[in-house]
Amino acid sequence: ILAVVVASISIGASAVPALSQGNDPYIFDLNSPQLDVRASLGDNTDNEFLKYGYPGPVSDFLLRSRYATSFNRALRNPNWVAEHLTLANLNGTADRSNADFKEDKDIPVMFRAHLKDYYRSGFDRGHMCPAADAKKDDQAMKETFLLTNMTPQVGVGFNRNYWAYLEAFVRDLTKSFDDVYCISGPLYLPVQEDGKWYVKYQVIGNPPNVAVPTHFFKVVLVKQGSDFSLGAFALPNKAIDNSTPLTDFDVPVETVEKAAGLVFFDKLERTSVTPLCSKTKCSFK
To answer: Phi and psi for 66 in degrees, rounded to 5?
Structure first.
């Protein structure tokens, strides 16, 4: 059991609640199995409260050729997108110029992100699973352009620059490790104003449909033989100077878990996993 306590750290420009190790009555068992919500419900509406149906929330689980994702119908953003990268599966000749952004027909129309939502919004359609990770074939490439793999990102200085460098950093890890597992997603973090904390984010579309995350995360697990290393990065959704060290955004995995309401790689004993940046240099070439 790893004891963690609420603390405060700075991610980019925003101070956010975080987690740090220590001795405290607030115990969070990182090794306990996650609750299977569907199993606990059993899709059982045979009671007076759910007599006529279960309202949700529903997160659509989508399995693609090169990634898996959980889609948030309320925010019209993925909750997370998971990948497995190796030197071999990064090979391929598929060209992103043959792929177009498309709405995901696996999501009901009323809950989809729509192409028109991004039109003149001032934001890029930012990949969570990068197109460069899916050169396997044309189908894999096209799946990365579905809007369920997208979220609004600042273009110049972030999606087209610093975030792209982080994506390349993750790919390059396959040159040093047998397996690389990466989970990416959005965060909606509080900001302090007048001594109070608020969660504020823009919504784009007409009518407004798609939430604009305040931050993004990548949680990266690497495997070499029987050894595992784990790291997490949380970046503000804004232009970041190219000279900013990647280590400025290196945060405890537990920080991202608490902020996102997720638990990463829970099948591993966390205490036996070493920090990623102690195994490799966390910087851009």
So the answer is: -120, 5
CA distances from 210 to 58, 111, 173, 216 (A): 16, 10, 32, 15
> What does 214-252 look like in DSSP terms, one character per residue?
SEEEEEEEEEETTEEEEEEEEEESS---TTS-GGGGEE-
Helix (H) or strand (E) holding 260: helix 253-260
| 232 exposure class (CB count in 10 Å sphere: 0-12, 13-18, 19+) | buried
Alpha helices in 144-250 (DSSP H): 162-172
Is position 127 annotated as part of the catalytic site? yes
In the set 84, 114, 127, 215, the catalytic residue is 127
Residue with structure tokens 């102690």?
A: 278
Instruction: Let me know: does 145 contact 102? Beta carbons within 8 Å.
Output: yes
In one letter, which amino acid is 212? V
Per-residue pLDDT of the chain (285 residues; tens, 9 = 90+): 223 323 333 444 444 433 333 333 223 333 333 333 444 455 566 788 988 888 988 899 999 999 999 999 999 999 999 999 999 999 999 999 999 999 999 999 999 999 999 999 999 999 999 999 999 999 999 999 999 999 999 999 999 999 999 999 999 999 999 999 999 999 999 999 999 999 999 999 999 999 999 999 999 999 999 999 999 999 999 999 999 999 999 999 999 999 999 999 999 999 999 999 999 999 997
pTM of the model as a whole: 0.85
Are the C-beta atoms of 186 and 69 separated by less than 8 Å? no
Hey, what's the torsion of the CAs at 103, 104, 109, 110, to 10 degrees?
A: -90
Q: In the block, which residue shows the tokens 């690497």?
A: 222
- In 3D space, the residue among 233, 249, 232 whose CA is nearest the CA of residue 241 turns out to be 249
Q: Is the peptide bond before 25 cis (omega within 30 degrees of 0)?
A: no
